[in-house]
């Protein structure tokens, strides 16, 4: 890692201009594509980041200047913010649709959905700029500010633990850093720049039949998101099993950079979909399976009926058990400095070490969010908002969120991938005996984003970027993104109703999301009975209700596994196994192929070369695919705009 330079700030006018560029170019594109095709903004972040960085590097060269690596990294990552946060105001319109949908009527929830979540009048004008949207907007902004405070503060504690003390590799952050360094300093790192360019050209050409034809011309030559071999398994008698392979080079890139032991552990977790599920089907444990179900169906249904509880227990074990084993690291984080070692030699603010101050701030922000969530529930449901729900909110937002972030950060630090644990909030509210409606719409922040920020802090170290400069840029990017999101969403809504045939994806997906969003409050408030639920919903309710065997037992077993693997030095990572269990098996297979390619490269080129260049190869794969996706989406935007204009 580099020492941070004491020179002038990396938050320059060029960085601010790049953020504005992302807001003006990529944010409306992300909103439009989501409304028309259902494409998640996260799918185009890679394209936005790389094309913007290349554009500003090129402009700087033409102007006889150069971007510093620090500017490049801040620019690269914060353009991603303008895309990832782009649907903020679309969420307000979606909430209004949920509140007035046919499911709200059939479930008897019309008029029961809180005013601070969404207006309940189906005949309001198509604009966000009206008084009925002020309460939802204020609640959304207040919760966003508190959650970002939670993330930024807890991330520094995690950074000190996992980056400074345990020195986890954070392979994804290494790729971000290498991308910024090599593209900004091509004149210095000529060998790396040449290798990245060659790999990027290959990735660009490879992605033409994969994404170019799909996005630009609506033609599918290679299956997206995966080729599904599940029907073949069913034909040979493996009922309930699923298998596939994704052709996305970004998954190959992830497999290249993650440690081999983690990759193998993920693969072992993925074997549950090939080996365990046929057994569970035969034993009538996996009763939701039906002939003809594909990989996606089996993935979702197995989570619903089998894996949700174990994933919670295993995730907590994979995060907490290593902390107990390495308890000295935790002690060194907070004890008074007695040496000048790296762990104790940290900055202070108002006399407090930043680690202690960050932990205090996290507790303050999370408790504030808990109180805020409780107050807005009490405003509309004082009869059910007892003090035990304030305690529950605090346990979820302060306690579980921190535990999950410790586990998720370890996962990202070792593999670059996070852990997917659905339905934690739902299970907690159901288990509490809550019988109201409002709490289902509160901002219960049970997962958090501190693990992602920890990776950002690690990349700051590798690029020599001051974390304060990065955070200042973010504090410019996200408010501007929110403001422009409101403006863009309002414009799109004024053009045509949402949902409608003008925005085809909303006409399909929003109704499905409304059904699931309203199922929970309808059931917990007694408006629908268990016997009235469909089979999937009943299976999920039963799964979430059986906590001792579904959560506590995996927690105990997982903790024992962590202890034995550490003591006996067995090359197995429980956090990797948990990742493999939480994602579709097609992704696991492709990442494992990437790991095999990495081992071949390491054997042919040597360990030293491999360590030096593997992140460059991974960055090149992302660069080529990102440029192709950006070009294809531009063509798609033009085509769809022309098609819709005719109507």
Number of helices: 25
Q: C-alpha Rg, in Å?
A: 25 Å
General shape = globular
The portion of residues assigned to helices is: 55-70%
How far the N terminus sits from the C terminus, by CA atoms, comes to 56 Å
Q: How many E-type strands?
A: 4
Structure description:
The protein has 647 residues and is an all-alpha fold. The chain has one domain (87-169, 223-605). It is built from 25 helices and 4 strands. The protein has helices spanning 13-37, 45-62, 69-84, 88-100, 102-106, 134-165, 171-184, 190-217, 230-235, 249-257, 260-270, 276-282, 295-325, 327-334, 354-380, 387-415, 424-431, 450-463, 467-495, 504-524, 535-545, 547-567, 574-582, 585-605, 607-645; strands at 227-228, 244-245, 348-349, 352-353. It has a two-stranded antiparallel sheet. Helix 3 packs antiparallel against helix 18 and helix 13 packs across helix 22 (547-567). The longest helix is centred in the last third of the chain and has 39 residues, at 607-645. It is globular and about 65 Å long. It starts with 12 loop residues before the first helix and ends with a helix. The model has no long low-confidence stretch (mean pLDDT 85).
Which helices and strands appear, and what pairs or packs with what?
Blueprint: H1 13-37, H2 45-62, H3 69-84, H4 88-100, H5 102-106, H6 134-165, H7 171-184, H8 190-217, E1 227-228, H9 230-235, E2 244-245, H10 249-257, H11 260-270, H12 276-282, H13 295-325, H14 327-334, E3 348-349, E4 352-353, H15 354-380, H16 387-415, H17 424-431, H18 450-463, H19 467-495, H20 504-524, H21 535-545, H22 547-567, H23 574-582, H24 585-605, H25 607-645
Antiparallel strand pairs: 1-2, 3-4
Helix pairs in contact: 1-2, 1-3, 1-19, 1-25, 2-3, 2-25, 3-7, 3-18, 3-19, 4-19, 4-20, 6-15, 6-16, 6-18, 7-18, 7-25, 8-25, 10-24, 10-25, 11-23, 11-24, 13-14, 13-16, 13-21, 13-22, 13-23, 15-16, 16-18, 24-25
């Amino acid at each position: 890692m580099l020492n941070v330079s004491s020179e002038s700030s990396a938050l320059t006018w060029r960085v601010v201009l790049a953020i504005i560029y992302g807001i003006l170019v990529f944010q409306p594109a992300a909103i439009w594509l989501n409304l028309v095709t259902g494409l998640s903004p996260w799918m185009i972040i890679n394209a936005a980041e790389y094309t913007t960085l290349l554009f500003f590097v090129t402009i700087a060269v033409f102007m006889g200047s150069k971007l510093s690596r620090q500017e490049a990294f801040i620019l690269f990552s914060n353009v991603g913010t303008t895309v990832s946060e782009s649907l903020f105001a679309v969420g307000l319109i979606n909430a209004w649709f949920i509140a007035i949908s046919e499911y709200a009527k059939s479930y008897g929830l019309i008029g029961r959905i809180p005013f601070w979540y969404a207006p309940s009048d189906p005949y309001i004008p198509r604009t966000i700029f009206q008084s009925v949207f002020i309460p939802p907007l204020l609640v959304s902004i207040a919760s966003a500010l508190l959650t970002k405070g939670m993330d930024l503060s807890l991330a520094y504690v995690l950074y000190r633990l996992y980056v400074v003390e345990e020195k986890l590799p954070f392979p994804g952050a290494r790729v971000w850093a290498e991308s910024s360094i090599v593209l900004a300093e091509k004149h210095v790192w000529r060998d790396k720049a040449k290798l990245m360019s060659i790999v990027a050209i290959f990735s660009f050409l490879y992605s033409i039949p994969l994404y170019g034809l799909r996005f630009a011309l609506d033609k599918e030559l290679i299956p997206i998101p995966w080729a599904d071999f599940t029907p073949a398994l069913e034909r040979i008698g493996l009922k309930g099993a699923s298998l596939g392979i994704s052709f996305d080079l970004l998954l190959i890139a992830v497999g290249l950079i993650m440690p081999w032991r983690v990759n193998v552990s993920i693969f072992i977790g993925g074997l549950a979909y090939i080996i365990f599920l046929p057994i569970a089907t035969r034993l009538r444990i996996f009763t939701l399976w039906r002939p003809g179900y594909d990989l996606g169906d089996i993935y979702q249904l197995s989570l619903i009926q089998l894996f949700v509880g174990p994933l919670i227990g295993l995730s907590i074990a994979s995060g907490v058990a290593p902390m107990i084993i390495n308890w000295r690291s935790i002690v060194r984080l907070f004890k008074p400095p007695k040496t000048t070692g790296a762990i104790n030699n940290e900055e202070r603010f108002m006399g407090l070490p930043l680690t202690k101050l960050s932990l205090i701030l996290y507790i303050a922000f999370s408790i504030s969010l808990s109180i805020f969530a409780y107050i807005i529930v009490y405003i509309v449901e004082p009869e059910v908002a007892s003090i035990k729900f304030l305690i529950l909110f605090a346990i979820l937002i302060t306690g579980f969120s921190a535990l999950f972030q410790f586990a998720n950060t370890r996962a990202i630090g070792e593999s670059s991938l996070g852990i997917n644990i659905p339905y934690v909030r739902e299970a907690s509210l159901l288990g509490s005996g809550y019988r109201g409606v409002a709490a289902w719409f509160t901002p219960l922040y049970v997962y958090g984003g501190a693990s992602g920020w920890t990776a950002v802090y690690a990349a700051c170290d590798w690029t020599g970027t001051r974390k304060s400069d990065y955070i200042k840029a973010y504090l410019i990017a996200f408010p501007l993104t929110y403001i422009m999101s409101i403006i863009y969403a309002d414009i799109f809504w004024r053009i045509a109703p949402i949902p409608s045939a003008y925005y085809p994806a909303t006409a399909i997906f929003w109704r499905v999301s409304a059904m699931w969003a309203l199922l929970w409050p309808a059931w917990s408030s007694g408006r629908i009975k268990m016997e009235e639920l469909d089979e999937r919903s009943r299976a999920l309710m039963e799964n979430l209700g059986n906590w001792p065997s579904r959560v506590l037992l995996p927690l105990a077993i997982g903790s024992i596994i962590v202890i034995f693997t550490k003591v006996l030095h067995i090359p197995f990572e429980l956090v990797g196994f948990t990742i493999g269990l939480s994602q579709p098996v097609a992704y696991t297979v492709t990442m494992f192929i990437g790991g095999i390619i990495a081992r071949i490269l390491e054997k042919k080129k040597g360990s030293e070369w491999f360590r030096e260049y593997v992140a460059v190869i991974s960055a090149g794969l992302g660069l080529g695919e990102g440029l192709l996706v950006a070009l294809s989406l531009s063509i798609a935007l033009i085509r769809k705009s022309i098609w819709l204009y005719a109507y």
